[in-house]
Amino acid sequence: MEEGSMTKKLESALTRIRSAKGNYVGVGCLVSDKHIVTCAHVILDALGISRTTNEQPKTTVQLDFAFGILQQVFNAKVTFWRPVHFNQAALSEFGEDIALLELDEPVLSAKPACFLLTNPSDLEQHRFQVFGLPKGNPQGVWADGIVIKGLANGWVQIEDKEQSGFQVEPGFSGSPVWDTNLSAVIGMIVATDPNRIEARVGFMIPTLELFRVCPLLEDIKAINRKNLEITQSERKVVAQLLTFLEDRRLLTESLGYQFHHPDHLRKSAQEIRMRVNLALQEIERDSKLTPILKQFQFAARSFQEETEKALQLPSSVLGSYADYLEKYQFYMTRSIIAAAELCSLEVDRGILEAFERGKNRGSAF
């Protein structure tokens, strides 16, 4: 479960906000099948309206999906508006410069991004990646860096410590900030420091603030609420456990070699039980992950017991054991997929293939 590959899930949600002339002025992020969050100043730039305007625009905004195959242009209207505040005395006000767009029709070919509601203080020193459209790069580029610290106005400072590669600059506004430690969106790019370009500094509105300021985000049914209720520490525990499970030949390979090494299977099931027990100790008892981890625990214990029985049998009468092995493989891969979906983690191809084999055989406990 490589963290680098997780940005593929973000790519599907990335949109490019267009001006009437077809120029790209900023980025937006799909949060449901027809809603996109971006910066208010990106919308004003797209419509050719002064950034000092406070009134919510009524004109339709055009956009496309940055990684869409057909590059279809979509129309959207503004349904939530929190304009830019230029009065320096208003810098203490939280949540400015946010807009929510609603498409004319749902987009079924793209998937909403995974947003994680986390206190900014828990994100310090995390690595991030962000997509942007700086001048001369209409196809978009990626920048990365680290999260520094929260500011008094609710924003969070981010920095690129490297001297090479792209940095957050004009054209990145509205883009979701992808935390490579947590594999989720943790904020939205809102500004850079125009007076200190050499410092390679940018600012984001954290997701916790986005959802507080824009109640409509909470009301969108397509947002995966289960994911929002999983803490980052629990998500890390599950990611580590699934990485371990995905490396078990017992769970991913077609049946055959297993019958020649039943004692190895018993030890593998025992090790799985130990790993799951440790994971259960690290999450809250009332966590939504607990029932799934207990399914792992039950299956591993049952399989270990059946394997110990099989060790006493001659190879000619292992038919019932083979049937139990198929059921165990199916049950475990199904639970892995459920845990991954709950935490918005990708699943190894071998696990998916093993699950499909079991499903086609009708295997189940």
Quick overview of this protein structure:
The chain is 35% helix and 21% strand. By secondary structure, the chain is of the alpha+beta class.
Question: Strand count, sense and closure of the main sheet?
Answer: 6 strands, antiparallel, barrel
Number of helices: 11
What integer value in Å does the Rg equal?
A: 24 Å
pLDDT averaged residue by residue: 81
Report the portion of residues in β strands.
15-25%
N-to-C order of helices and strands: HEEEHEEEEEEEEEHHHHHHHHH
| Tally of DSSP β-strands | 12
**Which structural category fits the helices and strands?**
alpha+beta
How is the largest sheet built, in terms of strand order? 1-2-3-6-5-4
Shape: elongated
Low-confidence stretches: 1-5, 88-94, 221-228
What distance lies between the first and last C-alpha atoms, to the nearest angstrom?
A: 27 Å
What fraction, in percent, of the residue positions are helical? Answer: 25-40%
Structure report:
By secondary structure, the protein is of the alpha+beta class. The chain contains 11 helices and 12 strands. The chain has helices spanning 7-11, 40-47, 207-213, 215-219, 225-228, 232-245, 249-252, 262-282, 290-310, 319-343, 349-361; strands spanning 14-18, 24-30, 35-38, 61-65, 74-82, 98-103, 127-132, 141-150, 156-159, 176-179, 184-192, 201-206. Strands 1-2-3-6-5-4 form a 6-stranded antiparallel β-barrel. It is elongated, with a radius of gyration of 24 Å.
